[in-house]
From TrEMBL:
Keywords annotated in UniProt: 2Fe-2S, Iron, Iron-sulfur, Metal-binding
Gene Ontology MF term list: 2 iron, 2 sulfur cluster binding; metal ion binding
Organism: Lepisosteus oculatus
Any Pfam family the entry gives: Rieske_4
Segments forming domain Rieske: 20-117
Name of the molecule in the record: Si:ch211-212d10.2
Presence of the UniProt keyword Cell inner membrane in the record: no
Cross-referenced InterPro entries: Rieske_2Fe-2S (IPR017941), Rieske_2Fe-2S_sf (IPR036922), Sol_Rieske_ferrdox_dom (IPR054716)
Transmembrane segments: none
Amino acid sequence: MASSNAEYGSDSAAELWRLIGPVTELSNKPCRLIYSELGYDSDVCLFHTKGEFRAMDARCAHSGGPLCEGDIEEADGVLRVTCPWHDYDFNVRTGASETGLQQRVHEVKVEDGSVFVKHQGQLSLKPFPVTSED
């Protein structure tokens, strides 16, 4: 399997399709934190529910809480993730919250048994090394 830092396609310079990993590995958890080379605020939650992958920013739009640690529940046919810090909930498909907040969502595609997320930075299943700037 190719590195999780692989890029695919020649979309805009700002966002490219980033290889995350194989469907077989990523489909065994309902939510997984994907690290961004751009730092903590650019990390992504990758959701796998009902055979579909969805992705959104990992830090809650309200106060930066860890959405990947939140509850994922379906109510009235809408799948929502609830932030564990202040109970703000977000539609996993659209990023909309009943509170009026909007969480940024990212396009996801499955191709040849691999999951890709469209994102402005490199993405990885493991944290990127911390580099110091002197």
